Every structure is written in structure tokens, then in C-alpha cells.
């Protein structure tokens, strides 16, 4: 049987090894377990997800350490991820009540009309490697609360974190048949998504894979599909005096988690009169940025990217931009031949004839100089993606114009493109996903509304068109 192995990006050491799962068998177990889980009271399911938080809290440091090992992100960031997992539970309980709770309505029909929600059944959760606990958890918890059985297929780069997440859930008393782990690669992923006994797919990952799933499910209109994909997110810098703060905001947007966030700023669009000063501040800050292993002391700003192949692809992308009209502001360099530590790359692509509209998932920032605010907005919209966008500086009137014209699901003023709230709807448009698949509105994907109209006695409403007896 094929085995999956995960390695620590920072050291190259093997971290985890396990056999690929049997999709049919796992789906069968979920199918059989589901009715009993759905029949539990909502209060019981809520009690159990709250117990999961208690279990996790007991081993919060160990879990953060595992996340740091398997992703390469610094401990301070791994701890933040565990906090986000914990916070998601109360957010999801609230979201279930507010988004999918029972509602009476005035339907205009005779009788009492109400909308109530039911779980879909078996939900497949496909997770990413950048937040291997937080993002799948953001789908698992609302789906569990709603009464679904879950199959988690973690990214093949982070199986250990996926396994640990479910272990805490099982310890809390959520049955192991109700939250199962499927280890595997694309083959298992495809089989799971297309399985006739899987009722919904909650996906977080690249646009390429998300679009393939969407195509695969095109003939199954009833299957629920939440797509949280990537971005080619713009950050516009307009008139603003606080350049130290602006530089810090740009660095945070583009380079936290080594740029491996769906919300990372990929394109910096700068007003021409601000350009030299902004770039100067930015370069100085990037030069001070510490890159290192997750447990280094002092803690690094960012770790390695996920693996050597990704590091190679990113440095190749940087060279591609450079040889196609880009001007290097700061070179993306490999710091270690054997490990995927790379320096943040910044490149001015203003003069590039054709700009690639792909998500470069790493610490690579493309910079564009513009001389007019409307051109800046047009430049920001020059993408098929539409996840997150920020304006830094400018007047309230300009922010309003930006807000009205920008095509993105998350729009910010004077704050980074990333670090979006988990208590708010989260998601994008276009190649970024199908609207609001995550965070607060994830609840919408986890239960379907049933409209019921109820009368005390049987009665039809059409009384014309019959012959006399
Ligand atoms: C980010 O903005 O860096 O809970 C990711 C969620 C979001 C994820 C945000 N807060 O799904």
C-alpha cells in the first residue's frame, strides 16, 4: 500500500509516515455513522465541540509545536493558529444560530410557514498546508454543529497536523466514525470528491485544484461546494505621511507565513510621487527581516516555504519576471541549497508588457507605479482573482471610490490585506472562490434550508373547475 511521508521544511527530517486511506471504506463508515450524529440534539453537538476546545487547551503548546514543525512557520505564528482554532468554535456556534436557526415566515400561503435547516450528510473537507489546523477546522466545526459526518483529507504536505486535530476531537467524545481522516494525494482527493455518498465538499486550496473540483461536480448540481481559493491581491499606496507604518503594513501583507497566505498582498500599486520613498522604507525594513527555523531564538519573522520544489518554483518565477521586463528591487535568493529558505523577492513590473495573472504562493511582491488614482484601481482589478484588497492612504472620497469599484470579497483601508477576521464572512469572487465559503458564512454551506408549511387539517385550495355531483 502506498505510504505518505511528511518532512519538516526547516530541517528536512521525516516527521510522519502513514498509509493512504481506502476512500470507499471511509465513506461507508461515515454514511453509517451519520444518521445517529444528526439525530443528536443540537445542544449535545455543541457541548462536544466545546469539549474539543478543553482537550486542545491541555496540549496547546504541543499542538503549536507540531504545526511549526510540519509547516516551518515560527512558533509565535503556530501559537496564533491554535488560538484561531479555539476561537472558531464559539464563532461557529453563534454563526449556526444566526445564519441557519429556525425562522417563521409570512409565505402568503395558508398555514404556518417556517424555514428549518437540515445537515447535508457526509461532508468532505479538503485542507491546505499553510494553516493546516485553522482552515480545515473552520469547515469541520460548523459542519459538525449542523449535524454532518466529516471526512478530512489534509494536504499531503501536512498529514500529521490533520491527524492531531482529529485526535483532540475524538478525545472530546466526538465519535471517530463522525470525524475521519483520509490520508492521500490527488487520487484519493478526486475519488472522495466524486463519491456518490459524499454530499458536499468544503475546499481550501489553489485555484487550479478548486476549478478542477468545480468541473468534476458540474453534473452534480445538488452537491454542496465551498471553494476558498487563492488571490492575486492588490495593495494600493496613495498619499500618506506615515511611511514607517506603511512599510511595516506592506511587509506584513506580503511576507508573513513566508507569503503563503491566500490573502497575502501580491501586487503593490504605488503612486508615482510616493514611489521612491515607499520603496526606500520597504527595502530597509526587508533587509532587517529575520528568516529562520520555527524554534530559533530570537524568533524569525518568517520561516522557509513548504518544500524545496516550491522554493525552486518561486525563484524561477522571480527570474521569469526579471527576464521579461521586471526590475529587481530586492532579489529572491535561496539561503540554503538543501532547505527551502528564501529571501523575500520584490520586483517592479510596471514596464512588463504582459503581466502573469497567477497566484505566486510565496514571498514574492510585484510592484507597479501609477500616476492616477483611477488607473490604480484599474490596475488592482486587472486580475481574474478577487479575494482581498487594501488601500493605504488617500482621502475618504478616494476610499469610497476604491470600495465601490474594486472587485474583491475583502476590502480594507489602512490595514494589511491578510489577517482577516474569522468572525466575519470570508471569501472571494472570480478565481478566488464562490463568494463566502469560509469563516462566519461557512455555516451556510453546512445545512440546507427546508421550507415547511403546516396546516391542522388536510385542505386543498383549488375549488373551481369541477362538474356537479
Ligand atoms: C488571513 O486573512 O490571513 O477564519 C486568513 C478564516 C479567516 C482566514 C484568514 N480568518 O477563515
From TrEMBL:
Biological processes per GO annotation: L-arginine catabolic process
Leading EC class: oxidoreductase
Active site: 228
Keywords: Arginine metabolism, NAD, Oxidoreductase
Positions of the Aldehyde dehydrogenase domain: 6-444
CDD domains, A to Z: ALDH_SGSD_AstD
Origin: domain of life: Bacteria
EC id: 1.2.1.71
Gene Ontology terms, MF aspect: succinylglutamate-semialdehyde dehydrogenase activity
PROSITE patterns, A to Z: ALDEHYDE_DEHYDR_CYS, ALDEHYDE_DEHYDR_GLU
Family the entry assigns: Belongs to the aldehyde dehydrogenase family.
Annotated NCBIfam families: arg_catab_astD, PRK09457.1
Name the UniProt record assigns to this protein: Succinylglutamate-semialdehyde dehydrogenase
Organism: Alteraurantiacibacter aestuarii
